[in-house]
Fold each of these.
Amino acid sequence: MGLGQKSQTNVFKINYASQVPIRLVLNHAFSTEKARRLQLSLSKKVICEDRLPEQIKFVGGVDAAYSNGHAIGAVAVLEYSTLKVVETKTSFQVVSAPYIPTLLSFREIPPVVSAINLLSVKPDVFLVDGHGIAHPRRLGFASHLGLVLDAVTIGVAKSLLCGEIRGKEVNKWNPIMYKGMIVGAAVYTRPGVKPVYISTGHKISLDTAIEIVKHCIGKYRIPEPLREAHKAAEARKKQELG
């Protein structure tokens, strides 16, 4: 079967616990020290070069939400050429890690991977609501997820986590500098709004990541795949609370 055919099922079937020691994602045993060491180790495996297919057919958006001690993972798949929604999936499960800034991937990957495992259409690239290598240990949610899935991922964040922005060119991307390196870009997607913060997640260059995110912009600041994933997460939250 060709990539993206709807009869294709279980396109990832990733067991998150097999990728990261389960002791790091359980509330009663979570070790920030071990988690940070793991981030530093995994960051060395991140690929910042383009490993995309010749033609992008499907783009995914990934988001997570929380309610009453539970986590909701959401993924939306859109046609890349038209940005029409093809499929959305969500998961609902008990939160498996505490809220600790810069360690959010340990909290968000389990529900997100559970949702992605339900897809029948495999995205060629995922836009992730979070940072990629624009992270103090160069392993934000987008990079961590890319390694777990062995997939192309892009970090698209709404706020800056580390570094500083050089320049305020509205019509160009402005580099995010951290420890003497460009780790991402501040990009204005709509006139008169704050920029989004784009960084390499995994298997993609920054230039290509910016190009893809810009392609996915509709009428709003946030790219359409992420907006659809967010809507799916909020709908599942209302369903569970109802």
Amino acid sequence: MKAKVVRGVIVPSKDITALNGTSVEVSIDKLINEPRSINQNSYYFGIVVPAISAHIEETEGIIYTKDEIHAFNQIKIAGAKPTIISIGDQEVIHFKVKSTTVMTKKEFTTFVEIIRKYWAERGLDIPDPSIMNG
């Protein structure tokens, strides 16, 4: 029998609900769409973003903040698209992109792998995420 976890709550499948009150033991093998981890976030903002910033400063002499590097990655790597929206009488530029805070572990891993490849092609070797585990 199967169940899924939705926002931290076990939701039984129809097979389980059809048992009408019979006790069942449920085990969870893995979480699907598990949110990105604190370690992934620490690696990204503690290793990846500073490495990119240092590389640009070294090669171009320009200093960017971590927020600027992150915005670049969201636009260039994650494909954020600018749109102009009106709020009241003001127009603002809004970038439609999935925030890294709501990415799954798999999505975030892919995001970081693409960033590492992009920067490797520009002469920057960003350390592998495994450095966070050991």
Amino acid sequence: MELFKITYLKKTYYFTSYKDDITIDNITYTAIPISREEITKGLEENGLKITAPLMIEPFTNMAVQALTELGSVEIARYPQMITLYKGNILKTTRDLGRELITIYVGQKIILSEGQFPTRSYSATCGYNFGEKYCGVNRNNYAFSINSDNFAINEQGTLISSDAFSGKSYLQGGYIKTNNGFYNYIYQFYSDKNEIALLNALPNPTEISSITVYPTCDKSPEACSYYNNLDHFGGFPYIPNNNLTTGGF
């Protein structure tokens, strides 16, 4: 069995892949269905993928926050307490149907005074939206709406507002309510000026204001939308498909 120590936004969480909780030195490792793939070693890859339940913290917040130097993972084998891996959280992807999150973790390898490059050539931008290499201040593109110009359905899962009209790249972004709740935007219906949320908002009638944070799909078009094409970190003329097996 394995123990997972996950640090995210300066808070540490402890989990185990075992069927029961494990307490060691007054620290309880909570049993959850968490798993990992084989740890890779090499020049091109030096990391692993972790799968965990989306609806458990900190994984829910990982789905709505920008992952820029905010998290790390340590994995140990129990009961030997052998450290198997230490690395930084690079990005996450979500499977909404199965309510799972996949966490991509990368390990820094130091050789003398140098470091292996962590970026690779791809058609899309390699930077995270709003990070220092991106060149966009995400907060400059956030906008707030108050209860006079938005409506939330009874379930707390849909928000409609005329303020969404003409806005691009809301899908994949997130919102923050005046009472401190974050929520991921998994669908934007531009024809209805409506966004669908990953989780239901608690007590929607008590929400008086909402701040909406758009995202970026890392395409040149999105970079142009944010007037940031000079910082585009991708190579748009590289084919996405393998020409040998997929054809032109």
